[in-house]
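User: My instructor asked us to take a sequence, write out its structure as tokens, and then describe one feature of it. I'm not sure where to start. Here is the sequence I was given:
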Amino acid sequence: MPELKGKEQLFDTWPEAYDRWFATPIGALVKKYESELLLNLLRPRSGEVILDAGCGTGIFTLDVCALGARVIGIDLSRPMLLRARMKAEGRRFESIVADMAHLPFHEEVFDRTVSVTALEFIQDGEATVRELLRVTKRDGTIVAATLNRLSPWASRRKAEAKKGHPLFQKVIFRSPDELTSLAPVDGIVETAIHFQKDEDPEKAPGIEADGRSRREQTGAFVAARWIKPGRRYT
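Assistant: Let's start with the prediction itself. The structure tokens for your sequence are:
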């Protein structure tokens, strides 16, 4: 794992805290809006084989499995994958310890590919997106989501990084334009989570609806979608 060696340990202590955050009132809203955006862009279908690159504890993986797809989840962290397997018991889910920057798969084996909040830990985003394209079938969909550099959430995490936070010190923040430019094909981009972490959960839905109606580019969650060309990709 040339680029990410050592980062698997960085995430090994996070599974419980990661899932616990999404169980909070504001975290549950974050999960709801992020999942809606991802599924709208990815549009998984029953019977398809989908790669979840950097699946973590399976927070979003389960939503894809629920639609009848077979999901192959990869992650550097064994504890993360263990939790994902436990939650996905009975679903069509398989997990592999692997590096998304160097995928252990042949070309064009997945109908669709998704990666959520993993690219921000990879310096060479272009090479990694090319890997996602490589393993996706022609005319297949690739969706990558990350933390938006233009969001106040990113500013807060940068401040925490300066204070020594071990995880946020490793994060690479990208804007919507920077994210879409990682691929050699044209794509579309959307953002979500226009409210703040300390927002009143009762007010957050209204703020989110307003941000989306204005198509603001400062939502904390930014997701890009690309369609692999029908001709052979090079």
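For the description part of your assignment, you could build on this observation: The radius of gyration is 17 Å. Try explaining in your own words what that tells you about the chain.
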